[in-house]
């Protein structure tokens, strides 16, 4: 059974987030099928997430997480919904190679599961790691919160997006080292309902 509403993934449109005057963020509402969300939620609730450090450099945060495929993470679980999700999503992600002018062959190799308790503080304005390349994809499984695209390490003048269950948020990542300065500052706050999300990334090898 398919997990994603793949017909909503428009590679040409998504590629616009790499434009010089774009804030680097796009969203696709209702990207996850309704039946998919419950199946994924049931699965990730069996996992053992660890509380993230309350401070990482200049960033404050309040959530729990589990990572697969990263050097400091865990091996991908075999025959799981996460494998099926990655395989299905990779078919769409690869369609971005030409329109988005990727220099590194697109392939998801890192998956994170995040959990925010209701009324959690979220995470303060930050940039994701420079080792993430091409694209960062965030699937909202449950809950409701705000995603802010910031001008720096402040929320003043930020663009506010609502994160709802089933939505996909896409954020540009560097296609080459020259684009490291283009990583969007962003944060999550106002977690009105308990939130689970899955983050699909491509980590640079070496």
Percent of residues in β-strands: 35-45%
Helix content: 10-25%
Uncertain residue segments: none
Shape: globular
Overall strand count: 11
Largest sheet data: 11 strands, antiparallel
Look at the helices and sheets and give the structural class.
mainly beta
Number of continuous helical runs: 3
Distance between the termini: 35 Å
Radius of gyration: 16 Å
Kindly state the mean pLDDT as a whole number?
95
What structural keywords apply?
3 helices, 11 strands
SSE inventory with pairings:
Elements: H1 11-14, E1 25-28, H2 34-44, E2 50-51, E3 55-56, E4 59-62, E5 64-68, H3 81-93, E6 110-116, E7 122-126, E8 135-150, E9 159-164, E10 168-172, E11 185-201
Antiparallel strand pairs: 1-10, 2-5, 3-4, 4-7, 5-6, 6-11, 7-11, 8-9, 8-10, 8-11
At a glance:
With 206 residues, the chain is mostly beta strands. Helix content is 14%, strand content 35%. Strands 1, 2, 3, 4, 5, 6, 7, 8, 9, 10 and 11 form an 11-stranded antiparallel sheet that branches.
Q: Would you write up a description of this structure?
A:
14% of the residues lie in helices and 35% in strands. It is built from three helices and eleven strands. Strands 1, 2, 3, 4, 5, 6, 7, 8, 9, 10 and 11 form an eleven-stranded antiparallel β-sheet that branches. The longest helix has 13 residues, at 81-93. It is globular and about 40 Å long. It starts with 10 loop residues before the first helix and ends in a 5-residue tail after the last strand.
